[in-house]
Amino acid sequence: MARKQHIAIFTTASLPWMTGTAVNPLFRAAYLAKEGDREVSLVIPWLSIKDQELVYPNKITFKIPLEQEAFVRKWLEERTGMVSRFNISFYAGKFSKEKRSILPVGDITETIPDEVADIAVLEEPEHLTWYHHGKRWKVKFRRVIGVVHTNYLAYVKREKNGLIQAFLLKHVNAWVIDIYCHKVVRLSAATQDLPRSIICNVHGVNPKFLEVGKYKQEQQQRGEQAFRKGAYYIGKMIWSKGYSELLQLLSENQDELSALQMELYGNGEDSDQVRESAKKLELDIRIYPGRDHVDPIFHEYKVFINPSTTDVVCTTTAEALAMGKIVICANHPSNDFFKRFPNCHMYNTGDEFVKLTLKALAEEPVPLTDELRHELSWEAATERFVRVAELDFAVSEKPLPSASQRFMYISSDEVRKNIEEASAIIHHTVSGIEAARCAFGAIPKTLRPDEQQCRELGLAFPGQ
User: Fold this and answer.
1) Record's family (predicted)?
2) What pTM did the predictor assign?
3) Does the pLDDT at position 228 exceed 70?
4) Peptide bond into 16 cis (omega under 30)
5) Which class does domain 5-203+392-457 fall in?
6) Distance CA 7, CA 101 (A)
7) What is the SS3 assignment for 256?
8) 207-376: same fold as 5-203+392-457?
9) Strand order in 183-186's β-sheet?
10) CA pair distance 380, 377, nearest whole angstrom
């Protein structure tokens, strides 16, 4: 019998951190493995206890990887009703306070044995390869697919010397992705253009949100009031997640929106500043700690207002639409996927924002069609992913030209391959120099896992 296709999904975060790169790759693994015709491994970062305390909410920590694996599987099964059929492996990671993200430690390709290294999916490929020093991804795996989640350039531009940093980062991203990926999937045009890339939203929503939407639609059909609350926003409480834009819109249009009482839910480094700014501007806003968006407290809201333009495709917008709500969002490339949904209203100016918000508060949402509901599902997202990632692509080696032909002619493919090989050697060399790594933003001493990480992950520590 032919061996099943093996897909290894590497990502930059894990539950209980409720971030997109923890949740979406988890669902992708579950739905790719659902039919049992593929072997799927989800490869996630393992953090030592000090970093867990910085990253994971509600003081949740794990002593060993098996505890975290059990947590992840339970969370997934509660939301999908499926028994997870994929493997979970861990690589050593460290949390960067400066970048507010987890960075890999050592050569994370080693988590997958060579004999099953078939297809690798790099969720946030630039993030996973900036400081990669180990076996080359394209050498280890037959095919490497990158899925771009984050608009890093938008975040960097908000920092000091942001334009210069964004210019450099743009070229670094293109460089490492060209070296390490055969194909790149950009969730929307909000991300930078990249070599061999295609734009397609390959994310879906937790099926629980679709269940809420169906129930709300049934209430509407029975003539009941499905939504009893007004407008809200949920998102990590940092300024770059749309909070600065939201407060500005509300402040500039207080008179017109006097009937609007906005409610915000989120945790984050800028929580105190957001509260202080809202109070200073005398805005009618209530601010609450973050919750899971599927929590029943959100079911009664009718309008979801999301002014963020730093997301690539906003997961909470998709979830709100799945629950049957009206969404008010910016007319921005990150929201292009949602234009087909009748409950999604996009604004270009402050005046349009006011008109659309007042209209949404006064009307009822349009019931979702079965077709549009399917478009939001992970089944549809998985179908799109399999298609655009060309998972069934067969690598066929072209016959080598004769000696006389090689002497007379060098193909453009050979030239490109030689240039890529030289680039890979340069990156491998630079990424192996501690001073160079730190100069470019790597966490010090992350060329290989430390003794504690090796002990926790059951790895051999050099010198033992």
Assistant:
1) Belongs to the glycosyltransferase group 1 family. Glycosyltransferase 4 subfamily.
2) 0.90
3) yes
4) yes
5) alpha beta
6) 24
7) coil
8) yes
9) 101-104, 87-96, 38-46, 5-10, 119-123, 143-148, 183-186, 197-199
10) 5
Percent of the chain past pLDDT 90, that is, above it, reads 79
- Please spell the DSSP secondary structure of 284-351, one letter per residue: -EEEE----TTSGGGTTEEEEEE---SBSS-HHHHHHHHTT-EEEEESSGGGGGGGG-TTEEEESSHH
pLDDT at 406: 46
3-state secondary structure of 1: coil
CA distance 238 to 460: 39
Torsion of CA 436, 184, 237, 216, to 10 degrees: -170
The Cα 106–Cα 104 span in angstroms is 7
CA–CA separation, 416 vs 407, rounded Å? Answer: 18
| The token pair that represents 186 in the structure block | 């950009």
Q: Taking the domains of the chain in order of start, what are their residue ranges?
A: 5-203+392-457, 207-376
Overall average pLDDT of the 275-291 stretch: 93
Using CB atoms within 10 A of its CB, is residue 250 exposed (0-12), middle (13-18) or buried (19+)?
buried
Q: In the numeric block, which tokens belong to residue 420?
A: 């890529």
When pLDDT is cut at 50, 70 and 90, the band that residue 338 belongs to is very high
Scan for tokens 């990590």, then name that residue: 236
Q: What is the pLDDT of residues 145-167, one digit of tens each?
A: 999 999 888 888 888 888 999 99
Structure tokens at 34: 């659902």
The CATH superfamily label for domain 207-376 reads Glycogen Phosphorylase B; (3.40.50.2000)
Closest CA to 236 of 203, 206, 274, 202: 274
